[in-house]
Design goal:
Radius of gyration: 20 Å
CATH superfamily: NADP-dependent oxidoreductase domain
CATH architecture: Alpha-Beta Barrel
Distance between the termini: 48 Å
Strand content: 5-15%
Shape: globular
Number of domains: 1
CATH topology: TIM Barrel
Number of helices: 13
Number of strands: 10
Largest sheet: 8 strands, parallel, barrel
Oligomer: single chain
CATH class: Alpha Beta
Structural class: alpha/beta
Length: 328
């Protein structure tokens, strides 16, 4: 296993991160335990969870799994989502942050979270308040590093500016969506992470299973997130995704490669990506994901696979600058 460093933290983590969102929902606790142990056996040492997963049940399952091996793992969790019926049972206010961390620590049976993510940007709460609360949690030893997921580059940079100006603990890790169909992160988020030395743990490397190719046959009744969850069917409902998926599946089939394995390896191969999150409903699916550890992606192969999907537009209209032509 070749471990990677998360930003400037000095922490070494595996290039794949165990995602636990299915634990307690599609994946029963017994299967979750087998998946956890398989990842542990393969050398994974970072996992991702969140308080909103199955209303806290996922964190409870993860807590039981970590009980005898907590020091082996870098633990990431997230807050911001709704955890009750009250008007303040969500968000990034100081009140909610302090309540959320204590509940998460209890469920996970641990004394600290390594990376504590703002799950989604909260437009109702000033970022100064949230960062101040997270800095207090760092000083109290309840978290080691603030982090943020599902944020744009300008929102992350705004946070970095506030942290520097007020001498607060800064975001040391981000969590964007990134896969062969969703490449927006390449435009500004990933270049920003590289420039600012921030760790990046990307999620949904198989595009919720779409890149496996199982949804390409309209006559086939396939179970999965996209077919069973409107949230994911909308996310991956763009008509342009179908042809890309079929082309990618055919490309892999011709070479006798697993599309899921290749999709994960491709996402993890971006120079600014520290680790790609892999989750699974079954142990068999996790084995397919873990095979990405043994699937090297050269620069040439990455370019070849990238050409199967549409490159996202540049952050500016100055393509000449990208080509080294500085003409005004």
């Amino acid at each position: 296993m070749k471990y990677r460093t998360i930003g400037i933290t000095g922490l070494q983590v595996s290039p794949l991160c165990l995602g636990t969102m299915t634990f307690g929902k599609e994946t029963d606790p017994e299967t979750a335990a087998r998946i956890f142990q398989r990842c542990r056996d393969r050398g994974l040492n970072i996992l991702d969870t969140a308080d909103v997963y199955v209303g806290g049940t996922t964190e409870e399952i993860v807590g039981r799994l970590l009980k005898d091996c907590r020091e082996e793992w870098i633990v990431c969790s997230k807050f911001q989502g709704r955890m009750g019926e009250g008007p303040n049972d969500r968000g990034c206010s100081r009140r909610h942050v302090t309540r959320a961390i204590d509940a998460t620590l209890k469920r996970l049976q641990t004394d600290r979270i390594d990376f504590y993510f703002i799950h989604n940007y909260d437009h109702l709460t000033p970022l100064e308040e949230t960062l101040g609360a997270l800095d207090d949690l760092v000083r109290e030893g309840k978290i080691l590093y603030p982090a943020i997921s599902n944020a744009s580059a300008w929102q992350i940079m705004k946070g970095l500016g506030i942290s520097e100006r007020k001498n607060l603990s800064r975001f040391e890790c981000i969590q964007p969506m990134y896969n062969l169909l969703k490449r927006q992160a390449e435009v500004e988020i990933l270049p920003m992470a590289a420039s600012e030395s921030i760790g990046t743990i990307c999620y949904s490397p198989t595009a919720a299973g779409m890149l496996t190719g199982k949804y390409t046959d309209p006559d086939q009744n396939v179970t999965g997130r996209i077919s069973q969850n409107k949230f994911y069917s909308v996310r991956y409902g763009d008509d342009a995704y179908g042809p890309v998926t079929r082309q990618f599946a055919d490309y892999c089939k011709f070479r006798s490669w697993s599309p899921a394995t290749v999709a994960i390896a491709w996402a993890a191969s971006h120079p600014a990506v520290t680790a790609a999150i892999v989750g699974a409903r079954t142990l068999e699916h996790m084995d397919t994901a873990l095979a990405a550890l043994d699937f090297p992606i050269s620069f040439e192969l990455r370019e070849e696979i990238s050409a199967l999907s549409k490159e996202p537009p540049l952050a500016t209209d100055r393509r000449d600058e990208q080509l080294g032509m500085f003409i005004h």
